[in-house]
Every structure is written in C-alpha cells, then in structure tokens.
Amino acid sequence: MKRREFITLPAKCLGGLLMYTLAGVPVRINGASGTVRLPLRFFTAHEALIIAAAAERIFPSDESGPGATEAGVAIYIDRQLAGPYGHDKYRYTRGPFVESVPEHGYQGKANPQEIYRDGLQKIGPDFTKLDAEKQNDRLRAIEGTTFFRMLRAHTIEGMFSDPMHGGNANMIGWQLIGYPGPVMSYRDEIDKHYGQAFRSQKPMSLAQVIGHPVKGWEEERN
Amino acid sequence: MERLKPVDVVIVGGGWTGLLMAKEIVHRTPLSVLVLERGGPARQDAATMDELDYLIRLRLMQNIADETVTHRHSITGRAVPVRQYGSFDPGTGVGGAGEHWGGVSNRYRADQFSLLSHLREKYGREVLPGNLTVQDWGITYDELEPYYWRAEQMMGVCGKAGNLRGTIIDGGDPFEAPRSHEFPNPPHKMSYFPTIFRNAAIELGYRPYPIPTATLSQSYRNPDGITRPGCAYCGFCSRYGCMIGAKAQPSNTLLPLLANKKSFRLQTGAWVRRVIHRHGKVEGVSYVDASGQEKVQPANVVMLASWTMNNSRLLLLSNIGEPYDALSGRGTLGKNLTHTVLHQVQLFFDKPLNLFMGTGGLGFAIGEFAGDQVDRDSGILRGSEIRANTNGQGPISAFGRVPPSVEVNWGPEWKKASLNWYDKVGQITCEAAHFAYRENYIDLDPTYTDKLGDPLVRLTLDWTNHEKRQKAYLEKVMNSLGKAMGAQVGKALRAAEDHYSATQYQSTHVQGGAIMGNSPEESVVNPWLQHWRIPNLWVMGGSAFPQNESANPTLTILAITYRAADAFVDRYVSRPGALG
C-alpha cells in the first residue's frame, strides 16, 4: 500500500481551508498558530515542496502582497491532479496521436499527472535547495513547455479559485485584489459606483454564500 | 437489440429546439412525444457560481472524451482531433447549450435571409469571390417576424425597439428590421463600462442601442404562464446555469410545461446512433442507453434537434442524403459550414470597472459597421455589430491582463503590474458575419471515432481573405472607439490570424451542414425544416443556417423552430407528406 504523504504548512494561512476526509466528509481546518500537516493525494511530500517553490517564483510573496505559498497553491494543484482533470477524464484521448500545427493545441498522449512528473524531473529534485535567482533560471529554461504553461495557469487558479478547491486559503487571493467572491445579487449596485471600486469588507466563499458545503469537480469519484 | 413500444414523434436532443418542438406538439395535438437526450437531467439546483469548475474546466459541456470533432485547414490536409475545447463549447444534458448561453438575443437583419440575391444585386456577380457559397434561406424576414415575436415573448427578451413598424426610434438599433411590437421587457439598468462606450459612440456620431438579452430586467410572466424573476447581475452567466432562473433556459422556460403531460416522455442518457429509414421514410432511431443496452425506438416521425454538428453527423452516419463533395460542389449534406469571426480589443483604464458584476448581454452595441452598412471602400461585403458588455469576469480569467508594455508573464514584475491593472481592463468585441465557402464543410473522419466506435465528424475550415480584411477593418473602428473612450488601447485578441485556430474561443455559434433553402438541389431541409427527400424527418437548429450573421443565433434558431412547429401541427399532422 502506498505510504500516505503529507505537506507541512504554516497554519495561519489556512484559516478558511475546507478539506475532505477520505470518507468525503468536509472538515474545516482552523489552526491559529504553528503548523498543520495536510494529506497529499497525488504528490509526494518532496514533489509538493518543489511545486510550492516553483509556484512561489511565478506568483511570489513580496512587498506587493501575499503569494502562492500563503494561498496554498501546491495543495490546489495536488487536488486537481488527483481528480478527474489530472488523468484526463475530460479530454479526448483516443489515438492515433500525431504532431500537428499550433492551431490544434496540445495533441500529446501524456495527461496532466504525467506532464507534472516529467516537469518535476526537468526542474530538478534539488530545486528547493537553490536560491530564488537560480530557481528563476531553471523555470526560464522551460518557459515554452506544456508543463510550464500548465504550472503558470494552475498557480493563478490556485490563487483565485474558490477555497473549496484547496487554494486561495483564507480567501487570501481574493483579499489581495478586492474580489468579493460569489455574490447572489448586485441588483442595487450594478448601475452605481461608476469609476469607483466596489469592494466588500471581506469576501465570502460559495459555501458561505449558499449556506452549505459545495464539492468541487475534483472530488468526483472515478 | 430490444425493440421498444412505438411513439408518434421521437425527438433527438433535449435542448432549446427539441423541447420547444415537444411543447408545441404536446400542447396542440394528441400525438405522443419522446425526447431522447444523451446527457443527464437538468441541474437547476447546482451551485454553479464557481469560476474554476464552470468557466475554466467547462463542467456544463459535453464530455469531449466521449466524442469530439476533428479539424483540418484544407481538403488536402490531415485532420486531427480537437482534444480539448477551444473555439466552441457544446452543452450537454437537458437544456443543452441553452443552459449555459449568455442570452444575447438580436434579430438578424432583413437582408440576411436573402443574402445571395442581395449581394448579387448590390455588387454584381463578378465582384463576389468565386468560392462564395452563401445562399438565400427560403424564407423572408417578414415571414419570420411573427415567430421572432413569439420567441421573444417566450424568453421575455429585454431591449429597446429601434424600428417599430417602419418608424425609427431613438435609443434603439436604427438598422434593425421593422418590429411589430416593442420588446416584451425594457432594457437593463446599465453598468459603468458600457456607459463609457455609449457616450463615446454618441460623440463619434453613432447610434448605440442596448444589447437585447434573454436575462430579465424585471419579473416577467410569459404567454405560457411561466414566471421568472429579474436578473441579479451576479456575473455568473455565460457558461454557468442561472441559479435564480432570470436567464431564459429550456429547463426553466419549457420543461415546466412538459413535466406533467401524459403524452410526453423524456429519456436521459440515451445516445442516438442512427436514424432508421427504408424506402424514403424514417421508421425510428437506434440508441444506446445509460447502461450500455442497444435499443430501437420506432416512431412515425423523427426530429433531429441535437447541436449543429451532431445533426449532420447523424444524417451522415445513417446514410441519409448525398454527402457534399468540395471538389465537384455536388451533394448538400455537410456543406456551408460556418463559424463566427471574433475580434476583441483590450482597453486599459485608469479607473476600476467592477467587471465581476453583470450578465451575459449587459451592454451597448452599435450597428454602423454591421450587415449591409459597411461601405464599398472597406473591401468587405459584410461587417459586424460592435459591442461593449459586462458579462461578469471572475478573478482567474481577469487577473494578468496587462498592457503590451509589460513583457513578462510571471514573477514579481508581472504580479505587480497585474495587481495594478486588475479590474481596469475592458473589451470591445465584434463577432463578424462568416460567409459560407466551397472549401468549408463537414464530413465523416476516416480515422477517429467516438466512444462507441462511430466516426467523428471532420471539419474542414479556414479563414479566407475576406475574414482577414474584416479583421483589419473592424480593428481600426474598435481602436478609434477605444481612444474616444479615454482608454489605452491594447492588442487585439482572438482575431482571425493566418489560420483558423481550434484553440481560441470564437463562439459556440457553429452553423450549417444541414441547411435550409429553396430547393433540394441546394439544401438539405425545406423552409419548414422538413427533410427534402424524407417527409417524416425534420432537422432543427443552427445546422439549418446557410451562413452566419454577426449576431448570436439562438433567437433565430427558436424563430425558425416555431415556424416549423406551426407547419408540422397545422399542416403535416392532418396530411403527412412533403410540404410545399
């Protein structure tokens, strides 16, 4: 049996993270201090740390605000890769596989899980030991690859998707840009605030808005 | 193969056209109607306000793993499968793409319905490109007008008439064809970005009008007795199902009228593979049910109401009609494949726009560069409506829109610029008319199959010089509008580059393949959507469009379906046979 892998993260970032137990029961993690150990679904602990470090280079935590580490982007990517998306349940994967022009998009056989495993090799098992500049060099060297395009897109998704998907912890991404989250009605706002930012005090997640937990597509059983 | 109890009418597909036709037949005749839908039941209770699952991962779309299309740029090229959605998003389940549409509901211009005659008259035969295969529809706008009105009332379309029985009215679209009635509902309250567009358009001498929408501006009861609430502008509209029912969807507008009817049945998970026919008559369909069992459903009448390309595919797989041959120009089935030509220009403002609020068609448009309005010197024969709307932009897709001067797309500099520009980037859009050409068509792919082993359809499709000239012309117009709006104009997006791209979203408005027209020599169905050769077979939907107009097709699809329903109920039922 596969050994369960965990990632250890600062708990203060994860105030709003909704997790699912193996039985599919949602639990909310509310660590105020210290660290939490989160079970991984796809990555090994070592891989998760490499992805976390790479996502941090793409969307860094710096003087302009929090980034991929605080949002838990690596958790988000882990959940996506373990779900139907990760093994191409919703992509046409019948052969023959042939090379074609760019207008036909990605034609490869490898699914996102395989693309990540391959990409992890490319950026190197020692990635977490490098300084930021060297890490940037490694990423720049693979900028044109399918893996990097995915990693960049997934990092943005992990920053700004509803926290039910495992990223955007504590809605930190939404707070960063002032996005209010899903709001049932702007009937009284739509024709006002011309030229002024309409920003709510604190964003709300979909589960908070509709009053019960919502399961993301990644939770779909295969 | 299990042979089921016969029904009077079997309809393939439970979207807008299938359920509309079912509703008309069940309420107006004693016939029994069975709708076979290969997707699942309507999911009106689903919490769809999630950008990741619905906009990015496209959770409401057909599972492309089960069936897709292949594409090539020319008749000599090698087609490869479209492996993930890009240029269009077909829906699935009860309601079909009518669940996740944006609700934009323009009528087509009057000259569209006789486009070939019109272009010949205006420009002369010699000027038209030799490979142009646009056709007349076999109906006139005046014949269709009452049906447009019925479709608008059914959905409760909101807008402002610009031409009421020939009188031009301020505030509406002065170029629209005459309407017999004002819209069923008034225009929406307006958000900021389209208001900037409207003011600039007026300043430039254009006549902006509110985009007609099928999301309601107020609570509305339609003639069928269905009541829906006004839109809440939550911004989860196009590619989402409406959580309050303000957007007209088959599931909230038609399905409630069918649910308790004894003569109606809806079977989900039913994947129709063939139309069964003998001696010039159809006898039913064969399908595979959700458990994988193959069934035969006998019926007196078969109506195809699946999405555009699947209508043509079912006819091709069933050997009904002569497949189109692009080299000789012979055959009608599969010809006149058209899409739309989407161009967008990004505009960068120094103020926030609150673009996360909105609804599918919330905005203004101008018609000065659409249809026949384009001047002869433009080098194009037909142009586009130009629109500025706020359909609700989530943060995943909105973040990272930066001016071309920002040359990096990750890292601290990119992050800082993206934070600075977040919610300050609007887009003006045009969806130009796409003509039909001899080389653009649908047939069966020789290599790739669906999950059951049936051949996929193959699209042969590329841009011609006309689309590239449309791009150049319309971009110039959009750039000047953007400047008048006080914005920094960014690069054009998704424009018709050298070749058609299956990866860039154009629209889900793919048309043609089983087109309507004046004669069986040039079309697959007659002007009532009845198959020319097989009178008890009807084919409904965008597959009937001989070419595409620069406006969203759903309203026109519904109008021709209403007209087909009248012909079926009032004429065919009492005297089955070819209408003519």
In short:
The complex is a heterodimer of chains A (222) and B (580). Chain A has 222 residues and is mainly alpha-helical. Helices cover 34% and strands 7% of the residues of chain A.
Largest interface: A-B, 66 and 67 residues
Tally of discrete structural domains of chain B: 2
Question: Tell me, what's the shape of chain A?
Answer: globular
Strand content of chain B: 15-25%
Number of strands of chain B: 22
Number of helices of chain B: 12
Characterise this structure.
- The complex is a heterodimer of chains A (222) and B (580).
- Chain A is mainly alpha-helical and 222 residues long.
- In chain A, 34% of the residues lie in helices and 7% in strands.
- Chain A has helices at residues 45-58, 68-71, 73-82, 112-123, 132-141, 146-160, 172-177, 206-210; strands spanning 6-10, 18-20, 26-28, 35-39.
- In chain A, the strands form two sheets. Chain A has a two-stranded antiparallel sheet.
- The two termini of chain A are 19 Å apart.
- The model of chain A is unreliable at 15-28 (pLDDT under 50).
- Chain B has two domains: 1-71 and 86-101 and 112-157 and 249-339 and 434-462 and 509-544 and 560-580, FAD/NAD(P)-binding domain (3-Layer(bba) Sandwich), CATH 3.50.50; 162-247 and 341-433 and 463-498, no CATH class.
- Helices cover 22% and strands 20% of the residues of chain B.
- Chain B has helices spanning 16-28, 51-56, 97-100, 115-123, 141-155, 192-203, 250-253, 308-317, 395-398, 412-421, 465-484, 554-572, and strands at 2-3, 7-12, 33-37, 69-72, 80-81, 163-164, 167-168, 209-210, 220-221, 227-228, 264-268, 271-278, 281-288, 294-304, 341-348, 358-366, 386-391, 425-432, 441-449, 455-460, 488-493, 537-539.
- In chain B, strands 1, 2, 3, 11, 12, 13, 14 and 22 form an eight-stranded mixed β-sheet that branches. In chain B, strands 8-16-17-18-15-21 form a six-stranded antiparallel β-sheet, with helices on one face. In chain B, strands 5-4-20-19 form a four-stranded mixed β-sheet, covered by helices on one side.
- The model of chain B has no long low-confidence stretch (mean pLDDT 95).
- At the A-B interface, helix 6, helix 7 and helix 8 of A face helix 2, strand 5, helix 10 and strand 19 of B.
